[in-house]
Amino acid sequence: MILFITAISIIVILFLYLLWIRPRQLRWGATPAEVNISLPGDVLVSKPDFIATRAVSIKASPAEVWPWIIQIGSKRAGWYSIDWMDNAGIPSSSSIIPEYQVIEIGQFIPFTPNQKNGMWVKDFCLNEYILWDDKKGSATWLWFLSSEGGQQTRLLTRLRTKYKWMSPWILYYLIYDIGDIIMMRKCLLGIKQRVEAKK
User: Fold this and answer.
1) Is residue 156 within 8 Å of residue 146, measured between CB atoms?
2) Which helix (H) or strand (E) holds 73?
3) Rounded distance, CA 195 to CA 68, Å?
4) All structural domains of the chain
5) Ramachandran area for residue 37 (φ above 0: left; ψ -120 to 50: alpha; else beta)
6) Distance CA 128, CA 80 (A)
């Protein structure tokens, strides 16, 4: 009986997540137009299982937001998120770090403290966007800046990932699917707070 109730509870929770929570967390902060707009890198991952477009408005120009974006990474400026979880407990930077202000195509951006996992810079346009990919055609991550006029910027981030359902990593994919919004929301708000604090 206990197993039955547990199984039913899991099914109900999963149903609620897929039906109500997931669609909302995948577009946190973004307008319907932003969710549906075509952005750089969209064609690189065919039939992704995970597409998340999140956004935040920042009271600063794109040129003022840009330096905070390009220095992101583990053992770099950090992720402006949950440092004990994604940056080995090292506090994310609250300032612009000069040595991380130069980017180039093919540059590796480490995601983990051991520097073994990450993505590569696929493309970028100064003060407009930077696109990372995994070089396998299974994941891209875009940071996109657009001016809202005057001293206001719209920051969009888009993740497109294709899951390998028969991979030993499938449990990670499931955790990633559910938990990514926690990190990403804090990251976007962390960028906003840092940029606006320097105004």
Assistant:
1) yes
2) none
3) 8
4) 26-197 (3.30.530.20)
5) beta
6) 20
